[in-house]
């Protein structure tokens, strides 16, 4: 936090004394706990800070959110059990909406506890975009022990949230009245999604985030309800979203795979899931990549390629049970290279036809309290489609290119046909899962290789 005393600034004294009962209600989202332990922590030497953070993580009770189906079966979903989503454990054979029509769309926004207000974020304003960036970068923790945090750039958020067909009302923020601090956010972008044989306009939900000091106070259900209301208002009845936690009910459960590009650095920052080797000689040799790409005709995508890439992707995506139906405009928005945000490469044959495409987006992270390293750059596999080149060779070239651009690690999900090359290219499976969900839609579950949709956070 940038404030010197964030506890105080987050919610200031509301003035005249209130009755005990009223005070209790108003306190619903009031931050609790000791006076800013993070500020206290920052005054300690680096090494001590890191040890304390690790210890805190190891001894903390956690948020209790289920990470596996087993745990989910024991969890009481007070909110999700009220929502039009399939029940955990149901075996589904039918396809269709759970609730019909939008008859009960609330006219007014859902009410918030006193001291908080809704704010529709105008992301074309650099000031507002910076505020969102701060909320996410301070609170969208990547690793549970709080040593690596996402560090989204303004350009990344513009790419992920400001679509030509996007709706400002779907950038839904919560602010503290007294100091206007942004403490909660949820967003959605419209997308045409194909699920099995059905095509539907859906809201693609992203960037759900609650300020750390307001966690476990049920702000999430209010954010989701309000976004649902705004989505329903536009005539959309379905949504698609992903989460690392198990909610009712995953349509598909996928795994993250990681491929080190800068193994030494990843070891030094104790990147989670990597085996700590004392002797790096052999692993470094095993992970070595060529300095140059090997596919003839491979080059960065340019604007003129949009049509060719669109057709390549759409043909490929038809193979899967869940996939986006991209318009030309969306293909350009999502794939046209933007520095440090999205890279896309195509293979152009001698006659000018495009036969293959591979794209990856970039997410940076801050490494906290490390004496040498301050940041990490991860390339995330987005879409890959090939008709002439072996997908493994194309992906190997993507690794070479990502390394040459200074990325430290390449991450991929085992969706689509990715499993055909992950092991061969020395990706290793992590213990992190990503579950795909549909809101107000029921259909049979699917294996990861039938998922043809990647939702950048
Ligand atoms: C995810 C996050 C918003 C949850 O906030 P929280 O303070 O722990 O939870 P709240 O008390 O506000 O709400 C609890 C409800 O939210 C639900 N919930 C928790 N995480 C959720 C998620 N990622 N997606 C949807 N619902 C979620 C819980 O299941 C619970 O409902 P239930 O009673 O039906 O089980 C918060 O932990 C956060 O900002 N994390 C960092 C960013 C992040 O991981 N975002 C999610 C990306 S998918």
From TrEMBL:
Glycylpeptide N-tetradecanoyltransferase C-terminal domain segment(s): 268-450
Keywords of the record: Acyltransferase, Cytoplasm, Membrane, Phosphoprotein, Transferase
Pfam families in UniProt: NMT, NMT_C
Region entry Disordered, spans: 1-37
InterPro entries referenced in this protein's UniProt entry, alphabetically: Acyl_CoA_acyltransferase, NMT, NMT_C, NMT_N
EC id: 2.3.1.97
Membrane topology classification: Peripheral membrane protein
GO CC annotations on file: cytosol; membrane
Comp. bias regions, Basic and acidic residues: 1-17
Keyword Transferase found: yes
Any one GO molecular-function label of the UniProt entry: glycylpeptide N-tetradecanoyltransferase activity
Record localization: Cytoplasm, Cytosol; Membrane
Catalytic reactions on record: N-terminal glycyl-[protein] + tetradecanoyl-CoA = N-tetradecanoylglycyl-[protein] + CoA + H(+)
Sequence ranges assigned to domain Glycylpeptide N-tetradecanoyltransferase N-terminal in this UniProt record: 103-254
Biological role stated in the UniProt entry: Adds a myristoyl group to the N-terminal glycine residue of certain cellular proteins.
Family under the similarity heading: Belongs to the NMT family.
Protein name per its UniProtKB record: Glycylpeptide N-tetradecanoyltransferase
UniProt source species: Monopterus albus
